[in-house]
Design a protein that fits this description.
Layout: H1 5-39, H2 44-64, H3 69-88
Helix pairs in contact: 1-2, 1-3, 2-3
């Protein structure tokens, strides 16, 4: 651990930010799984709501600097492709 007081503070802040980032990424993954589960079902309203939630979480993560904008775009694109594939079956 660092000896300088400001360095100790930065370590604490970095850990707090890391936990926030992990929680946000986990929430996105959970939302994607939920949307994929709903895609194989019949409830279109719930599916649209779940997809909208994934989009919202990804966009918020980009604004907060948790995800790169291209990463968020890729996640949203892959989700849309997977949902369309599941719905055509």
């Amino acid at each position: 651990m660092a000896n300088i007081k400001s360095s100790k503070k930065r370590v604490l802040i970095a850990e707090r930010n890391r936990l926030r980032n992990v929680a946000a990424k986990s929430a996105i993954k959970t939302a994607i799984k939920k949307a994929l589960e709903l895609a194989s079902g019949e409830d279109k309203d719930a599916l649209n709501s779940a997809i909208s939630n994934v989009y919202k979480l990804c966009d918020k993560a980009v604004v907060k600097g948790i995800l790169h904008k291209n990463t968020a775009a890729r996640k949203k694109s892959r989700l849309t492709i997977a949902v369309n594939k599941l719905q055509t079956k």
